[in-house]
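Q: Predict the assembly, please.
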Amino acid sequence: MNHMTESFSYVWLIPFLPLLGAFINVFVNRNPRVSGMIACATVAASFLLALGVFFQLIGLPDGERSVDVVVYSWITTGTFAVDVAFLVDPLSTVMMLVVTGVGLLIHVYSIGYMGKDACCVRYFSYLNLFMFAMLILVMGNNFLLMFVGWEGVGLCSYLLIGFWCERRSAANAGMKAFVVNRIGDFAFILGLLLIFLYAGSLTYADVFAADPAVLAPVITAITLLLFVGAMGKSAQVPLHVWLPDAMEGPTPVSALIHAATMVTAGVYMVARCHVLFAQSATAMTAVAVVGAVTAIFAAYIALTQYDIKRVLAYSTVSQLGYMFLACGVGYFTAGIFHLVTHAFFKALLFMGAGSVIHALEHALEKGRDPQDLRNMGGLRDLMPVTYKSMLLATLAIAGIAPFAGFFSKDLILLGAFVNAPALWLVGLATGAMTAFYMFRLLFMTFGGETRLSRDETEKVRESSRVMTIPLVLLAVLSTVGGFIGIPHVFAAGMDRFGGFLAPVFSGLPEAQVPSASVELTLMVLTLLLAAAGIWGAYTVYIRGNSIFDRLVPRALYTLSLEKFYVDEIYDTLIVGPVRKIARGCWRILDSAIIDGGLTLAALTVRSMGNAIRYTQTGVVQNYALIMVVGALVVFAYITGFLGP
Amino acid sequence: MNTALPVINLYAVMPQIVLVSAATVVLIVGLFERFRKGIPYLSLLLLAVSGVVAVNQLGLGPVPFSDVSSMMVMDDFGLVATLVFIAGAVLTVLISISYAEARSIDRGEYYALLIYAVSGMSMMAASTDLFTFFLGLEVLSISLYVLIGFEQRDAGSNEGALKYFLLGAFASGFILYGMALLYGASGSTEYEAIARTLGGERSDAVNLLLLGGLGLLLVGIGFKISMVPFHAWTPDVYQGAPTPVAAFLSTGSKAAAFVVLIRLLGSVFPGLQMEWIPLISVLAVLTIAVGNVVALVQTNLKRLLAYSSIAHAGYMLLPLMADSQDGSASIVFYLIVYTAMNLGAFGVLAVLSARGAPCATLEDLAGLGSRRPLLAAVMAVVMFSLAGIPPTAGFMAKFYLFSALVHGGYVELAVIGLLFSGVSLYYYLRVVVWMYMRPAAETPAEAAGRLSYTGMTALCLSALAILAVGVFPSELLQLAERAVMTLP
Amino acid sequence: MIPVTYYLVLSAVLFLVGATGVLIRRNAIIVLMGIELMLNGANLSFVAFARQFGMVDGHIYVFLVITVAAAEVAIGLALVILLFRNRGTVNIDEVRSLRW
Amino acid sequence: MELYFFLFFAIVAVASSVAMILQRNPIYCVLLLIMVMISIAGLYLMLDAQFVAIIQIVVYAGAIMVLFLFVIMLLNLSREEGGVFRIQKPLAVLLAALLFLPVAAMVMSYAGGGTTPPADGGGAGFGEVEQIGTLLFTKYLLPVEIAAVLLLIAIVGAVVLTRKGTVSVGE
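A: Predicted assembly structure:
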């Protein structure tokens, strides 16, 4: 074991290099142009190292693919010891690759997006810091290190979301992100406390090897608390409110938060703790149900949003719901698989949206919102690269074969079908809705007639190379990324992803696999529903609108009234209520209850603060009087417990 | 008459002797106007010498002062505490230099009193007898009364000093009466003797007297560490005091009182431990709650820090319940970290307020991030540390403290503490938000120009220390553990 | 021989009367005198206990407490004089610019 | 006989102290406090604490209280008028009375705590200067030294606080 630890001794560089980059940008570098280079170079180096780890790891036999690399002993006291140590195993390697790989592309893209911003040095240092925190989170071999990364990503997201601090809304959004995360964090800490209390250690190896009987009395509490922590970080209902607001940050930040880092932390944590979760059926059910509810709830809201980034934000929430659904039904591999593919296409979607926003920002007249879908349309020919790459990403997220999202989503739905048919239905419906709202977004942005004025149209330019190249790379990944995990039913033994992760999840009970025909039927069903969603979007947002416009004058002449009628029915019976309910969900649940609850709690605490504050009268004798009251309490206590 | 002279071991009180002599030298040299500029540096030098003396004695104890009655003992615990006090004083001197000069309070007496105060704390830490403790406390308190009121013409300084004085003397009265009762119960004021009485067979009457005495001591010490409900002076006094003095007050005098509490617990309380737990835990939780909740609504920075320091006192009270070496070590560790953090926070204010209008409210910090990047960075580090965010020392301190608490089986208390430390994040981050995310006022309150080099050195040192301890806590942790090992 | 309890009760009374004085008087000097009264109460206990045990230690304590009291009074009165100079009053309920 | 002495001193002490905290004229307050001090000195004598009794008169009543008097005269303080303590006053008295209950219960139940006072008053020379002096320079050497430091600090402090202006000696 020793020589192996040594051969991996360089892994500490992976998180350290971005930290170094941040350090240089904060303290040494003052040149904005260089700052981006530094940031990209460090992340690129980390990515290469992560690749090195990956290849080294697959060179090892299955059983030995889990190596603890101790960097130094962090805390050693009489009662416990915690090391700064990294765990290199397939799961952490996958996360490393995703974080550094997608992160690298986002860094490169940022050079184009943020290069001209006045504070871009600060921006890149935050970005690097974010990478550092996330890498610590996924690489640590103990809960304490994970917690350090956990808090670190929270802090960095807060800094980045509030980056454009001139905007008050940005600062508030940053605050909100932090506060909501705090709720989750609190639960997470409590979970850790219980683990520490019962397992006596915070190192994964010790905790996961702990006798289930020892943990049994609190296992449900532990896992539920951990899960609440994951809900906060991964934006699950009802702790998701921060994520849509987090759109206030620069768009690459949204891409980073949503795709590669931060939000995936919760999924990673649940997967990492699968040993614990598997011991509590209650917790597993909770994970699955919350995941499914979140998936459909967020998708529902996404149906009617007009802000392009907000649609994507709710879509992220919804997709994360899928991942938790997968974990909850015991398909941890599927959850991580979806995490990976989602990282590809969601990063691409955000960066594509960023590209559009970037273009429109310069083109649109003052007062027109460059993020509003109603101000877009017809951009297909103006921004061809962005359009094509986003089309591929949209196909991927909609779950159309053979794009990346198809394979991972399919696996999740398969798991749900086997273990929880009710949740499978929810997932299926969500799939259709996903296809609908994503294509709605695509059509409203790129398709149909442009809603820009001529002057504006002329000013729209495709983004620069430095921004489009990452888009293209991600588009390729979104297209072929799914082939790393080809389902068994198509080609036996080709599920390389599952095979790679298998040693990590080997302790779990063997998953039931339905017959090939069932599996294929499910696939077809999924695809059909996705296609239906696309068709719906097409009808409403491409054909629907234009037909409607053309129909009115022609109505007198032709009898295609029927078509109109159908559309009308569709509109009143389906689109209308859906829109209303979705709006209602957003307004009542999100704004009123959850936000309101937060506000109310904050207000209560504040008013208590004010009440106590005004006992501080400034008169010294009042203070003395309070002291005497205290003394009286002490004496009452003393005589009290010695009394009869 | 023939009096047997006791065998005295001056070596045992060497740090205290050096400190008192240092203060007296500073006092005398301060009388000469021509040395005025050099006084702070002389103080630093002499503090360093005292530090070296203390370091040299580490590991040699325990050595009692005399064979007749120990009164004071030299052991690692007292020495580590003394070193913390000295470090705090060094930082205080550094942040004082520009502040004191600008306000013409840079006199020898100022620095001399600061060192006298350190000597008083050191006496408290080394005491093994209630009377030396009481006298050390008075040495500390009287120095502080004067230091707080040092800005004679400033009404706030004056008011703060008077309030602290009246309440401090009031609290001293309680301590003294408590000591009288303890003396009556056990016939001595030595910790050991009291412990013997507690440990032995005792009648209900003696028991009651002992409890009453300890209760009164609790009132007095509770005052010093600003435990609710004996905390009310804290915000007013911090606000009124000259900022470096407030820094010193919030760290040193609180630390000294805690050190005494730990030593008392180690030797005197064990017999009473179980009986005290409900009371102390309720008061600790109240302290945490009041500190954090009121800090939420403060806009005056010094008051905000005052309430935050109340809250921190509450956290540090918690592990007392655990009654373990771990618990005590975690308090010592917390105290060390807390000293660096709070001196840093007040230090930023002191450096900013040196010239021009004092930096008093959150608004005065607006735009600091772009005006004074380094200073703002220090403040941010300190705030994160106070909030307990990794990888700062504050996180380590909280982690160690709460894990000791959990180990002791007080999970509920740990949960409450964690909950409120979550609340506290709001107001610490608000400071950061104001520095980085609010545009500066047209005319910033603080004067333009260079900040004092010495002040910045001190601040950068404490910020670096906070980060370093956050990443490499082991050495300091072991020091803290070693310190409490020597306790009975 | 008067029982020690008598002295102790008397000392408690003096202590508490002193404390009451601290709580209810506006004049800072009288407040300070209230504190002196509290110290005297404690001192009486020390001496009474010393007699009870037949040990002189209690007397030493009183001696030292008187020293402390002198030091406190010196500082306290200096602060009061300073207050008077700054504000023209020694009524401490008027001194409350630092609050909330 | 002893009891009458005790009662006399006790009543004078309590009455004077209560009068002191009620008296509005600060000069009278000082004089009443001196009365308290003297009666306490009397009690010290009854407790065979001659040395402390003398110190009480000389230092406390003679020096410290004169300092009070001096400052009151210096500031030319007049009678104190009622202030803002409308609720505080009754509350304070109530609290003090409440606090008296447990404290009194505590000390009354003590009754010697199982010890009986030595009949000869602790032996010859109990409470006299020699015995105290010996103790001060042997067992209590350290506290005495600290007290010396304390006095030094108090002197410096009082001077620093009341010195007018900030002009230093050298200027």
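Chain C touches chain B through 44 residues (CB under 8 Å). Chain C has three helices and no strands.
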